[in-house]
Amino acid sequence: MASTSFWQATAGDWRPPAERPSPNRVFDCLIVGSGMVGASVAYALAQEKPAWKLAVADRRQVGGGATGRNAGFLLAGTAEHYAVSVAERGRATAREVFAVTVASHRRIRDFLARHPAASCDYWPCGSLTLAGTPDEAETLAQSAALLREDGFDVTFIPHDPLGRGFRAAIRNAHDAGVHPVKLIRALLAASGAAVFEHWPITGVEAAGNALLARSARGELRAERILLALNGEAGGFDGFFADKVFPVRGQILVTAPYARRLLSEVVYANQGYEYFRQLPDRRFLFGGGRRAFAKTEIGADETPTAAVQGFLEAFRDRHFPELADLPIERRWAGTMGFTRDGLPLMGRLPGRAPAWFSIACHGHGLGFGLEAGRLAARMVITGNPPPLFDARRLDATATVSGELPG
Ligand SMILES: Cc1cc2nc3c(=O)[nH]c(=O)nc-3n(C[C@H](O)[C@H](O)[C@H](O)COP(=O)(O)OP(=O)(O)OC[C@H]3O[C@@H](n4cnc5c(N)ncnc54)[C@H](O)[C@@H]3O)c2cc1C
Predict the structure, then answer these.
(1) Helix 364-381 / helix 36-48 crossing angle, nearest 10 deg
(2) Which parts of the chain sit beneath pLDDT 50?
(3) C-alpha of residue 372 to centroid of ligand 1, in Å
(4) Domain annotation for the chain: domains and CATH numbers
(5) How far is the CA of 320 from the centre of ligand 1 (A)?
(6) What is the pTM of this model?
(7) What pLDDT digit, counting tens, does each position of 215-229 carry?
(8) Mutate to test the pocket of ligand 1, among 36, 240, 244 (most ligand atoms within 8 A of CB)
């Protein structure tokens, strides 16, 4: 049973720009999937090709997928610590990937400056990455040194700056928090795309010189189609079945606490746990799936007693003063994992040559607008960005982090 997130419940009313599909209407580009990836690509295409008529179709409402169900952290970097990224990907690639996320932060700040009405509850609070063990503290120290050598502005703190039982921290003053549903609504509105909500696309095929996206709601035609389906990609086309792995993430949100205890968004225990105090002083705790790897697979958005219990115990261990605070909302969402922890971009092989930009390995807000810009360039030029080109999986067996199964 699908759950409703705090963001979905608090985004307010919104009527997206829509239009009636007509057999004679051929969009310049149709994007399937209206999450952070789809909205970022739509916004980037509108910037680069202002004359293009864009459409976005989603089987749910905008923000129904992972983007509406996440923690709202705008973090630089990937799921693993930078020292691990360097060891697995090589220094140059690790640096390039981190630079994409830094550029994405800059683009989001630029976007909000250009659209001041779309505040999106953006909160430039910085982040803390906390080590739970002495080994992780050592990895954080190495990561901070490597990041600084590579020109990224972070600070290593050899103790727990929160005094909550952790071992060390990295502070990144440029990270932020955001209301993710408000952010993608604002991006879609700025893109001018026609948005088709509750519009499940069941297949894509060539139709003369254009492409046709089939749906029981009506067919949509476009010169180009980009799939931004995240963890559901494997069910849409078998091409993704061995490339995109749906993994459940869970979150709880409390009632507002009397005082502000936390400023930063906080990533702990190798990112397996994360927490923040929202602008209205509620606490959000998420993660907790490491001990439940076998059950947290798939696209079921139902929170479980086991993981929610783990999150409550985590809260009580590190924030005992919150133990009696009511929990007002629990939810789950689906992350799209990949073998090497990086998004997949490219073109579907076969009869319906749709482009795709799929799966951000739990960091889609972080990859954000810069990854959207790269995917938009791919649609325009026909060249996938080498860093995220899905064909890399043909040539490498590198596996980063854990994969379900
Ligand atoms: C609990 C949780 C916490 C997270 N926390 C963070 C965080 O703090 N920071 C961060 O950077 N990332 C976080 N993530 C990851 C982040 O949410 C994702 O990486 C990001 O939202 C992916 O964006 P997307 O557009 O690819 O996917 P989605 O937002 O999932 O969008 C894909 C869309 O495709 C639609 N769709 C699928 N199939 C079809 C179809 N056949 N026809 C039409 N539409 C279709 C879906 O309805 C969905 O709306 C978290 C994820 C979870 C689950």
Answers:
(1) 40
(2) 397-401, 404-405
(3) 14
(4) 23-125+175-244+338-405 (3.50.50.60)
(5) 32
(6) 0.96
(7) 999 999 999 999 999
(8) 36
